[in-house]
Design a protein that fits this description.
By secondary structure, the chain is α+β, with helices and mostly antiparallel strands. It has one domain: Dynein light chain 2a, cytoplasmic (Beta-Lactamase), CATH 3.30.450.30. Helix content is 20%, strand content 36%. It is built from two helices and five strands, in the order H-E-E-H-E-E-E. Strands 2-1-5-4-3 form a five-stranded antiparallel beta sheet. The longest helix is centred in the middle third of the chain and has 15 residues. GO terms for molecular function: guanyl-nucleotide exchange factor activity. One of its GO terms (cellular component) is Ragulator complex. It is found in: Lysosome.
């Protein structure tokens, strides 16, 4: 699959600051603030692997399709599709407190 096919549409996401396309073999594509960011790719993949361990009984599918990491100024949104993880870093425009 070509890089253009992997990243189709990622540049058009509103408030997007950068993106990563990751497989088990490493970063397949990157741009913006996440360009060549192997460290963030590794952290996100570890979070995805950990979350994937929480499978529903007997289910072969991943227990989620999208995971968000919300920080003060930006949000990482990781989406699993096929054998790839698409990560987009977006501006966080919602500055409201999260109550636990």
């Amino acid at each position: 699959m070509t890089t253009a096919a992997l990243t189709a549409g990622l540049d058009r996401i509103p408030d997007q600051l950068g993106y990563l396309v990751i497989s088990e073999d490493g970063v397949l594509a990157s741009a913006g603030e996440l360009e060549n960011d192997e460290h963030t790719a590794g952290v996100i993949m570890q979070m995805v692997r950990t979350a994937c361990r929480f499978r529903l009984s007997g289910s072969a599918e991943a227990p989620f399709k999208r995971m968000s990491v919300i920080l003060d100024d930006f949000v990482y949104v990781a989406t699993i599709s096929g054998q790839k993880v698409f990560v987009v870093k977006r501006q966080n425009n919602q500055h409201q407190a999260v109550c636990a």
